[in-house]
Batch of 2 targets.
Target 1
Amino acid sequence: MESIETPGYRPLYKQVYDVIVRRISQGEWRPGQSLPSETALARDLSVSQGTVRKVLDALTAEKLLERRQGKGTYIAENTQERALFRFFRLSRPGGERLIPDRAWEKVRLRPSRALERLKLDLGRTDKVIEIRRVRAILGRPCIRETIIVPAALAPGLESLAPLPNTLYSLYQSRYGINITQAHEELRAGLADDDDAAEIDVLPGQPLLLIDRVAVSLEDRKVEWRQSRCQSADIVYAVNLT
Amino acid sequence: MESIETPGYRPLYKQVYDVIVRRISQGEWRPGQSLPSETALARDLSVSQGTVRKVLDALTAEKLLERRQGKGTYIAENTQERALFRFFRLSRPGGERLIPDRAWEKVRLRPSRALERLKLDLGRTDKVIEIRRVRAILGRPCIRETIIVPAALAPGLESLAPLPNTLYSLYQSRYGINITQAHEELRAGLADDDDAAEIDVLPGQPLLLIDRVAVSLEDRKVEWRQSRCQSADIVYAVNLT
DNA sequence: GAGTGGTCTAGACCACGCA
DNA sequence: GCGTGGTCTAGACCACTCT
């Protein structure tokens, strides 16, 4: 069963969970592909089908897998739509979801700053890729973003312009990085002259400020993103459950 | 098995799920109490223990139940701490959670307004209870709230002052209403003179505006809450998963 | 030791997708 | 018709709590 020892005793299903997550994160199974069937996995790992099922169900709940009855179990793909739906929370008041477009972007590779190293757990000499961009909604520039990515995680990202609308699908397809969670902090702020020059807002008007750190399946901090959003007819929607 | 028919065919575990949710929402089992054991429930409902387990695990994931190995399965209580942790997302930048206190409050019973009827699915003649209050953090008034509750759901609420810090524990303990989810929309706004008079902010400073509708286990809209939060050193924290 | 939930197994049958 | 995941069952043993 591929080096599953018993360090102080972990339940079997947790050991199976770790094996499967490791295989996915090491690229043994790739996004969009199907896993072996439950019975094949159970035989391979020398556990019962029920134990495999418990793990696959858990990973499905975490949105890392997708199960299709009659077909198989697949590695979830961070498609554009899916990533937008999952990690982009802006909508019209009342609920209608909004889809942002790129207005413009500037990408460069540069040394990291102290705050960036703190946010992303980087070392003193690590470089970062800085993405500055403005996003538009229905043709109207509404969001200014500064995105910081450790250069070591995404080599060559700075020369891939134009970047796709959702970076997370790029991280997954090109760099094998699965973004599984993000931590956000929201504040209110005031638009300054730079904001007014780039997005559809006047100086002194209120902006919604979003500070996000995105984390990968392997628990690495992959991206620090600061967004400044026009807040006149756009809201940030959350469901607390 | 208590009137479980097969309307077009629902899986057994869904039928069991419905029965258990109904018993909880009808008060047959009350918060803090323990449910019968898995084996007793299985016998009672004429299903296998595994099917009962699947349902209890699901309800535990939804935070409606709590399971304690060796002791039993309990109806989750919306204690102050728990409700704050689950539904109050304001914290210091960086993550330290904040605990609000009541500064003052005014409660009254009055006819509903059109927007309130829309938000809470009320009829033309339904009355509401309006709670206006200011909450303080570390002694500093930071949040202005207006809370609207259908009078029919919480009779006598207007004469219960002073209200507890977390209304949700009161809804549960006094009215048998379990708040299981809430939908929030966040915007940025500017402080006006009324804000400046009541909370620690100057006119024209940015405020975080939160619009929340809380929903019960039975899918009734129980509360519409509008909050205006000082946003200088308070952030709204979200984990996207 | 008795009773509870937690883990694990083995096997049956159903529902779905596809060739 | 075959292979897949989805549901359901029955039973064994473990880990924890309380008396």
Target 2
Amino acid sequence: MTLKTEKYPALYQASLELFADFGYRKTTVEDVAVKLDMTKGNLYFYVKNKKQLYEQTITHALTQWKDHVKKAVDKKSDPVEKFRVMAVSALAYIEKNAPLRQVIIKDPQIFTLSPREDRFAETNQAAMVILKDILKQGVAQKKFYPMDVDQVTAYLFSVYMMFLIKTYVNADQASSKKLFAIALELNLRGLLNHTTDRLTPIV
Amino acid sequence: MTLKTEKYPALYQASLELFADFGYRKTTVEDVAVKLDMTKGNLYFYVKNKKQLYEQTITHALTQWKDHVKKAVDKKSDPVEKFRVMAVSALAYIEKNAPLRQVIIKDPQIFTLSPREDRFAETNQAAMVILKDILKQGVAQKKFYPMDVDQVTAYLFSVYMMFLIKTYVNADQASSKKLFAIALELNLRGLLNHTTDRLTPIV
DNA sequence: AAATTGAATAATTTAACTTTTTGTTCAAAT
DNA sequence: ATTTGAACAAAAAGTTAAATTATTCAATTT
């Protein structure tokens, strides 16, 4: 007799694997139920409907991803190192997580450049906090140039999304990896506090 | 009696306007022919088929865009100024070109982050040359840091594409404009030759 | 010859309808 | 508290005919 709350990890795993293999449309509620050794009727005791099952599953996977990056970042103290670790560990994580990668290929809209239509906006906001805190710390320690932290966070997160799209949605694996290193260098160069001069007039 | 070659400017204009208003599917070959005061049979004297009519029309519009930016850039001599003018004039041009903007909204795939499936790759390659030449000049004059110009060009062009998608495909107009200024500053800061130290190890 | 027409034909799209599959609910059972 | 299975609703897939649109081309005009 397992407690309701104890069932969710297995539920999310079964669900993620099926959605990864067949996509949202071709995965039936019964497929998921059978994989969990239950009937589809019973699955509705755990989730409201198919759509929410899907979204909760993805949200769970994205949250685990974010937590993993957070842990890696917290091991460093220097903001420059934190920035680098954030970028590298985020990419390394998904590199190892095949089901999540597959789900993204089947449903490219999971990664969107449009915050307005981001179904996982809440989770992504939480991920952005990691970046934002690094920038804040860097600015406070005068290691990064004085900036509008929220805007720079939004921009860099967009660039990160762009890479995820290029690498995993479009599967330009090899070329994207190289570009990622180039981008990391260029952006870190930009963040570092070489000068206090403003380079572009405020529009 | 107009010469065949003289008809193309009017042809591309009529075609662009119709595709802008109705999109590829809802624009008929007859619509275009009527707008040019000819029959659809005769339109086939000028273009191979509907798909090519569409692609030639977009290519023509994108090429004009590129030429406009090139002209603006050529008026400056300093690579930093060139970089800024390139960014600003590119955005200003499309801001004024309503039909091109509309066509992009109707067919978001015109701007893609995937070079492999870019139907207008050739035209975009030509546009990248402008950026590449600016970077080359900046590096040669030691104003920009020593870099792999091809890779940095590819990265910055991706960022540019990302902005076009965010601003015109996703219509996050207001917020994207601000981010563009932020990005311009951050990237120029990164390009400038403050140090010769490598910030990230080569992967 | 170069450009254009209009009619014939091929290809594609749309609409209406049927059948099948899948999602969701819920009273009854464990 | 959790699970079942049957009933029902909703959505997807398949079928077909009609209508629209793309394309070709022999004949005509400029």
